[in-house]
Amino acid sequence: MGNRYIGKLYTLCEWIMRIAYLNLLWFFFTLAGFVILGGSPATTAMFAVTRKWITGQSDIPIFRTYWKTYRNDFWKSQILGIIFLCIGFILYMDFKFLSSPIGLNYSWLKVVFLILGWFYLNGLFYVFALYSHYKLSFVTYFRNAFLMCLFYPIHCLMMILGCIFIVLLVINFPGLSPFFSVSLLCLWISVITHNVFSKVERQKKTKKMDNLVSE
Q1: Residues 150-202: pLDDT tens digits?
Q2: pLDDT at 106 over 80
Q3: How far apart are alpha carbons 48 and 64 in whole angstroms?
Q4: Which of 70, 60, 68 has its CA nearest to residue 29?
Q5: Residue 195 vs residues 58, 85, 155, 186, 214: alpha-carbon distances, Å
Q6: Where in the chain are the domains?
Q7: Which of 66, 164, 174, 206 has a CA-to-CA distance to 24 between 20 and 30 Å?
Q8: pLDDT of residue 205
Q9: What's the pLDDT at 105?
Q10: Cα separation, 82 vs 17, whole angstroms
Q11: What confidence tier does 7 reach under pLDDT thresholds 50, 70, 90?
């Protein structure tokens, strides 16, 4: 009994170290790319690592996997970052306008803004997760992310609530930020999105089987 609990404690400590190490890698490689150029590839590489963890490959060499993805997808991932940065800037300016005295006359637009913000956040999560799972065109990444936001609202809500919890945890315990902030968010998003991807794959297989039976 004692050995079993010691084994579980060891596994827990091992996962804590992995998550903390991944978080430090994200900060280092983001800064290495002067933040603007480093943010997207660092995030893409982090999703690549968490994807392998979620799919049962917990013993992968973290640094080697991270560095390989960071290096290979450095420029391609910049496109994703630039697109979301531009969309985020537009939404931010809209929010500033709606918060101004002039914008108060268009209060009905706040509902539209909230809906757009919902799709933006979840789309951001899904696009990076999709990028780490599949090799698709950029248009397909954004289309699939939008469709998943539309057809899996419960999973989107779970992602948002989980992220809010993690952010509040880090705010209340700022000492955790260097070790358990971005990587913990990424791991949570990877768990939820992988669940969605698995459902989509099962639905595709079921549809294929139905077509074969009908033939």
Answers
A1: 999 999 999 999 999 999 999 999 888 889 999 999 999 999 999 999 999 98
A2: no
A3: 11
A4: 70
A5: 17, 27, 9, 14, 29
A6: 2-214
A7: 164
A8: 79
A9: 64
A10: 32
A11: confident
Alpha-carbon dihedral 190, 191, 197, 200, rounded to 10 degrees? -150
Q: How far apart are CA 157 and CA 206, in angstroms?
A: 26
The single-letter DSSP state of residue 31 is H
Q: Would you state the structure tokens that stand for residue 36, as one six-digit string?
A: 């603007």
Which structure tokens are listed for 45?
């590489």
CA 37-135-55 angle, 5° bins: 95
pLDDT value at residue 210:
55
- Name, in order, each residue with C-beta under 8 angstroms of 66's C-beta and a sequence gap of 6 or more: 22, 25, 29, 45, 46, 48, 49
Question: In terms of residues, how long is the chain?
Answer: 215
Query: Residue 58: which residues within 8 A CB-CB, separation 6 or more?
Result: 18, 52
